[in-house]
Specification:
Length: 411
Amino acid sequence: MRERFDVVIAGAGPAGAQCARDLAERNYEVLVLETESEDEFPRQSNKSTAGTFMSAMTGFAIPDDVVMNYTDDVVLESPNDHYVRNQTGAVLEFAEFKQWLVSEGRDNGATYRFDSRVSAPIMENGEIVGVRYDGDEEAYADIVIDATGPAAPLAKKLDVCNLQRDRQAIGIEYEFEGVEVDHDDYADLRDAMMLRLDHDLAPGGYSWIFHTGEDTAKVGLCYIQNGSHQKYAKDGMGIDDYLEYWLDSDPRFDDAEKIEGTQAHRGSAHIQPPDSMSTDNFMAIGDTVPTVDPLWGEGIHKGMKSARAAAATADSALKPDEPDTSAENLSIYDQLWHSEVAPKHNARLMMTELLYLAPNDRYDQLMEDLRSTGQDTLRQINGGDRRAIAKLTHLSDMPILVEYARRRLDI
C-alpha cells in the first residue's frame, strides 16, 4: 500500500516548516522530509545570521523565546564612513527558531520525518506525483513542494527555476564573544545589525556584525564568485581566509574569541531571478527560488512569505469537490511571489548587482548620499524603487552601469 498525503514538502528550513505550519493548520495531511537527524537539527554548520525586522516577527507570530537580541538600528559601513538608520529588528537564535517552527507544524498536525533525504521525483505521465527518499522509500501527494534551498534536487529535475551556480553567493559566519561593539573609531553597534561594503574584506560581497547581547556578536561575510569577486580578490584566498583577515585587521576583534562549542555557520544563496517557480503538482519555495533586499537581505522573511503564498495556492487548488493542481492553477503562486513576496524583483536585483560592482571609494560616497537623501531612501531602495536608485546615481557611475549592462547581455 503506497503512502499518500495531500502535500509532501522536502526540507524543514524556515520556508518548508512555515509552509507545513500553514497547511496543517488548514487540516491538510502534510509530510515534511528533512535530511538532517532530529537530535542534531539544525546542524551547527547549517545556520543563518537570522537578522529580521518587526514585520516578520509580528506577521509570523515569532516568539521572544527565539530572539537572541532585539536591535534598535541598522548600520551600513564603507571603508571610511558609515550610515545609521533607526529601525527595530531582532537577531534570532536560528536553531531554536527552526525547532519552534517544527513544533508549531507538529502541533497543527504535520508529520515530520528526519534522516530522510529526498533524492528524486516520482513521475507519472510526465508529471510529478511523489518523491523517493532514503533510497527506495516513496511518498505520494497531490502537491510536492521543494524547500531544500540551493540544492533544489526536485526543481532541477523538473527544470523549474533554472538557477546557475556562477551567480550563487557563499557565506561563512562565527559567533564571537569579546567583540568591542562600541569602539571609538567605528559606528556604535550596541543593539545594531551592521553590514560593511568593503572589497578588501569581502570582494564582490559584504561582511557583517550582528550584536547578540553584551560583548557577543555574529560575525561573517559572503560574496558571489563571479567577475566582480575575481576583480577584487586576493590571490590564493578563500572565504575562510577573508574572515581571518578581517578578524586580524579590525581592532573591534582584538580581544574577540569564538564562543566555545559553536562551529562555523556556512550557507549559500542564489543572487539571480528564477525562470519559474511551479509546474503541474509542484511548487518551489524559500531559497530554492530566493529573493533578497539589496542592502539588508532578509532572506528568512522572504522565504517564509513565499511559503505562505504557496500554502494559500495549495489551499485554493485542493478544493474537496474539484481539486486542480495543474501548472495553470498553481501558477497563482508565481503571481503571488512577484506581487507579494518579491515585488519589483528585477529592480531590487539590479541594485544588488550594482552594489557589488562599485569600487570602495563609491561606497564612501554612498554613505554621504544616504545622509543627504533622508531616512526613507534605504527603505525605498530595498523596495526596488527605481527613482530612489536614480537619486543615488552620479555621472561618475557610468562605468559601473556600462559594466552591469555588459554582464546582463553577456558581451
